[in-house]
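Checklist before submission:
- one chain only
- standard amino acids only
- sequence pasted in full

Submission:
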Amino acid sequence: MVRGAAEPISWPGARAVLIVATGSDVRARLRRVVVEDSAGLHPFPRMMRWLTLLVPANAGFRLRTVLIRLAGWNVHSSTLFARIPMWSGAGPIRNRLQIGADCFINVGCHFELNDRISIGDGVSIGHEVLILTSSHKIGPYDRRAGDATNAAVTIESGAWIGARSILLPGVTIGAGSIVSTGSVVNADVAANSVVAGAPATVVVPRLAGARARPTNDR
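Returned file contents:
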């Protein structure tokens, strides 16, 4: 044996090291699987949502809002829900939603909260509106849905989102604007405008009676 060289590990010793290493890898893998598979579980918000489903649709609006607020959602007390939206996303999703005063959210909506959704005051959201905050980079040919990306969605005060519209990640819906029924919004919508189509394009650049935004100019 060469002086100073480490002594070879005997077969039983090597086997024990291998078993320990393998067991550690398995535990780490199981831990990762549990974390990944439970990231969207959200037991308390889910339980509260089930409780609100006992309230018939299009009835008990204020009771529904009280239950949502008790569940920890940042929703103004004057906002009403015809039915609780489907919430989804990984992590602390309740911290990523803010809904202002005097809004109305109709039945069948889905808010995907991998990033923030901010809704101003006096916003109306129609039936089955889908708001997305995540997507994917384009990957190689064998897996086109590449790395995941997140981007916040903002709906400014007074906007009206028509039924079955889809808001894609990163868009801002300007104050007082209208998104027509069935639109797919993939770019910002100017304040006091009307958009329609898939992808949504401007059909009315400026609604009559729109107030100009205040400025600091004297």
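Reviewer check: The first helix runs from residue 11 to 38.
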